[in-house]
Amino acid sequence: MNTSKAMNKLKAILIDLGIPRESLHDDTLLHRDLQLDSTEIVEIVLGLKQNLGIKVKLGGRKDLTLAQVCDRIEAEMLTQSQSSHVS
Amino acid sequence: MVALGRTRIGSRSGYINRFIKHVSRKIMMGHISEQLPKTFNVAAYLLNGNLERGNSQKVAFFSRQDNYTYEQLSQRVQQAARLLTSLGLERENRLAILLPDSPESVFAFWGAIWLGALPVPINTASSIEQAQHILRDSRAKILLSERSWQTKLAPIESPFLQQVLLTDGDDSFLSLLSQQPEEPFPCAETARDEPAFWLYTSGSTGMPKGVIHLHQSMVICAENYAKATLGLKPDDITYSVAKIPFAYGLGNTLFMPLAVGASTVLSDASNVFDIIADIHHYQPTVLFGIPSLYANLLAVSDIESLDVDSLRLCISAAEQLPESIWHQWRETYNREIYEGIGTTEFLHIFLANRLGECKPGTSGRPVIGYDVQVVDQNGQPCPPGEIGDLVVSGESLMLGYWNRLTETREVLWGNTMHTGDKYVQDGSGYFKFVGRKDDLFKVNGQWISPLEIEDILHQHPQILEVAVVPESDEGEKLTQVVAYVSLKSGKEPTSELGTEIYQFAKQRLTHFKAPKTLRFVEQLPRTATGKIHRKSVADSQKMALNN
Fold first, then answer.
1. What is the model's pLDDT at position B143?
2. Identical fold, B252-436 and B449-546
3. Does B281 touch chain A (CB under 8 A)?
């Protein structure tokens, strides 16, 4: 199980949205399993920006697992960290 | 591909062509329906009309799968009519279409009307129970859907359903269409005031009811709203967030662009980032949104900014647009949002803010062709500033609800509908929504019945009483579902219990119906007859806080 900072933060945001902790696994899908609507996706994105300072775009027609969302979060964190080092 | 010119459209539908120019010239204000020929098939009228106007090679719609010209659309529609006929679909039979907005859903919708049958679009966000109900209630003979839905619905509990067609897998709907001859298929000689299609809308019990619309209805809405109010024109490209099974989406995507020879985008996007990508890709000129779309686009504007250069019109309907969002949108994107309101029963918008005359926070003024009034309990017009019931008259009014005589008679008075909305009109003639006569309200542009949510919450073992109400900070914010809950004797209101109840609701209700906020109260206010008085719940809590 992914216990990274990104996954923990993502789970905390989803629990705040009213989703039971026991429903959240690496392979849980945002739409099929959690039935998140467009406004809840926006709330996740805003929560990540507020908590981790990153701008993640959760677009794409393909349903995403929590692990795949984490990959996007971590990639964005890496990009941001590299750009801050460059500047 | 065979060109479908004027001379090749078949003699039985030739009468349509003769009337197209005649009707187009004659349709003015007032009684549009009387200016249509008595024998009138709206699919043939709109499709042949575009071929007549020289739009054969113009794109009718863009989609991720393919783009289709008006000529290709016309041919596919006739192939769909031929295929459905060969499968036993006859005039007045129902065809259920449970699909996202897609080329297949468009071909099937118009194909059914072409042959005189009745398409019944079903929202893909419906629950399985709702979809089963619609299939049974409509007595659909054929269902067009996807394999994933077929699996979810199995076994389909309708004795009337004879066949399921799928858009994926072997023998897909498109492959079956392409096997049909390309020769013109004669349209059914339907009447202008004959049922053409049904739309399902939520009822107060939560189970959707079928709204029956006529062949003439779409022409009336296109003339009154698309042409006379919006000035929709042939070089427009429309993009609608509301999907085809909703009356608002049906007009935005299916018949209004067709009525003026414009183009539209068929998209299954619901995620705000996908909608932004669609707008950047297709460059629509008219955005038909709902309040939550504008709120979400603003919320992510510093993460993914929308390029609005292509948009000449931003429209909002389906529920009240908070004034704060209107102002934020204009400050951020330098565009006004033209808010309007309509009902499924009238098929589209009857109150609208017009270009250059926008009054944020209001639903605007009556669309041409509609008589809209705020009346008191005796049916007399209210003076400006006084709250009353909104009653609307217009030619696009439904025939009635299918198999719901009592509900039909409750809302229809001749050509007039009692909408159940409470409105106030200002001195300039603008109408402002102030609430509902019943307990229904809208979230994400969709009706919510408090009863359905309360029934679920009552199943929680620690809840004694519950009242579900909408809250929007007096229209300043988007409407949210709030549950006021009292607990059984000896149970303490804790944050852990609040979370547990929240999750309990979330797991049992369609996502947008789950309460966003839960408030524990000692007891709930009751009416003289002992019923919980929902309308005074929020007020009594505010008073308690102030004291």
1. 98
2. no
3. no
Mutate to test the interface with A, among B146, B271, B513 (most CBs of A within 10 A): B271
The answer to whether residue B296 neighbours chain A at the CB level (below 8 Å) is yes
What ipTM was reported for this prediction?
A: 0.89
Q: Does CATH number 3.30.300.30 belong to domain B6-192? A: no
Domain boundaries of chain B, sorted by first residue: 6-192, 252-436, 449-546
Band (B82; pLDDT cuts 50, 70, 90): very high
> Tell me, what DSSP letter sits at residue B385?
T
Architecture label for domain B449-546: 2-Layer Sandwich (3.30)
Domain range list for chain A = 5-86
Q: Which residue has the higher pLDDT, B250 or B449?
A: B250
CB contact A12 to B (< 8 Å): no
Mean pLDDT over A69-78 rounds to 92
pLDDT range class, residue A79, cuts 50, 70, 90: confident
Q: For the domain bounded by B252-436, which CATH number is listed?
A: 3.40.50.12780
Interface test with B, best of A42, A45, A56 (most B CBs within 10 A): A42
A5-86 is a CATH 1.10.1200.10 domain = yes
> For residues B236 and B283, what is the distance between their CA atoms, to the nearest angstrom?
10
- Which residues does B274 contact at the CB level (< 8 Å), separation at least 6? A59, A60, A61, B267
Cβ contact B149:B45 at 8 Å: no
The answer to whether residues B478 and B318 touch, using CB atoms and an 8 Å cutoff, is no
Statement: residue B531 has pLDDT above 70: no
Residue B245 has a pLDDT of 97
φ/ψ (deg, to 5) at B120: -130, 90
Give B398 to chain A, closest Cα distance, Å.
31
Residues 6+ apart with CB under 8 A from B284: B237, B238, B239, B265, B310, B311
And the tokens for B465?
């009483």
In angstroms, the CA B109 to CA B77 distance is: 8
Q: How far is CA B191 from CA B22, B49, B188, B306, in A?
A: 17, 18, 9, 45
- Of B127-131, B171-175, B199-203, B508-512, give the range with the top mean pLDDT: B171-175
Give the per-residue pLDDT at A36: 87
Task: Tell me if B272 and A38 make a contact (CB, 8 A cut-off).
Answer: yes
Q: Which chain A residues have a beta carbon less than 8 Å from that of B502? A: 18
